């Protein structure tokens, strides 16, 4: 019985040893698999970190490239804007130079206009004085005259000419209205006079013709003077305005 029990214990011990060996072997296999899994996890983590670093580097590089191109585009835009403004300014200045004559030509033109204005105002003043002397009236108010000095600039002289033309226009309008009114009064006084003197038919026709001729000449001369003066004003004012605008 003792031998049988001993044999049974030995068999059980051997079976336990076999099972322990199998367990140890399976444990070693599991440990190897865990190590492989850890290594694979580390490799995957390293690859993920490398991918993240590469992606961040690419994103940073793209951002730097965008910033660089933005600065370049802004600089080019500002440069093109400056060049465009300069070209537009040059074109505008050339057009203004083409429109506005040279200063020498404009100075000679201003001098010619001054001479014409002086001549015209002297003729008009002489004409008005002749009419007033013929009608035995008092002397008319004088029309101002512009006498250019050496120290006067073209701008001051042009302003003086404009003011002179305006004053002449007012004075001439007043004088023409007064002359028309005086002629009408003279004609009415002649037609309404009570002392009638008989004149022959031939003499009366001659006087009527002379009166009509004188009246028509006066009207024609007055009309020519006024038209010439207004034409001179209409021609000189745009030139003077263009000169002021150019200067």
UniProtKB/TrEMBL annotation:
Lineage: Eukaryota, Metazoa, Ecdysozoa, Nematoda, Chromadorea
Organism in which the protein naturally occurs: Onchocerca flexuosa
Protein name: Coiled-coil domain-containing protein 51
Lineage: superkingdom: Eukaryota
PANTHER family the record matches: COILED-COIL DOMAIN-CONTAINING PROTEIN 51, MITOCHONDRIAL POTASSIUM CHANNEL
Transmembrane intervals: 69-88, 222-244
InterPro entries: CCDC51
Keywords attached to this entry: Membrane, Transmembrane, Transmembrane helix
């Amino acid at each position: 019985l003792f031998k049988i029990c001993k044999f049974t214990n030995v068999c059980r011990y051997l079976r336990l040893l076999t099972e322990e060996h199998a367990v140890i072997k399976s444990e070693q296999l599991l440990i190897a698999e865990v190590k492989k899994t850890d290594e694979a996890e580390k490799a995957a983590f390293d690859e993920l970190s490398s991918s993240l670093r590469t992606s961040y580097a690419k994103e940073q590089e793209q951002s730097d490239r965008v910033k660089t191109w933005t600065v370049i585009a802004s600089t080019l835009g500002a440069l093109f804007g400056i060049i465009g403004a300069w070209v537009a300014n040059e074109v505008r200045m050339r057009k203004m130079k083409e429109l506005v004559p040279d200063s020498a030509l404009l100075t000679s033109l201003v001098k010619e206009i001054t001479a014409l204005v002086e001549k015209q105002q002297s003729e008009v003043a002489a004409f008005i004085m002749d009419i007033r002397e013929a009608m035995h009236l008092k002397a008319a108010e004088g029309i101002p005259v512009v006498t250019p000095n050496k120290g006067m600039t073209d701008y001051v002289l042009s302003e003086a000419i404009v003011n002179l033309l305006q004053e002449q226009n007012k004075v001439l309008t007043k004088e023409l209205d007064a002359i028309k009114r005086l002629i009408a009064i003279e004609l009415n006084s002649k037609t309404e006079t009570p002392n009638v003197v008989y004149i022959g038919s031939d003499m009366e026709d001659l006087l009527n013709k002379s009166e009509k001729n004188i009246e028509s000449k006066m009207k024609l001369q007055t009309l020519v003077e006024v038209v010439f003066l207004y034409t001179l004003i209409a021609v000189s004012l745009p030139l003077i305005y263009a000169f002021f605008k150019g200067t």
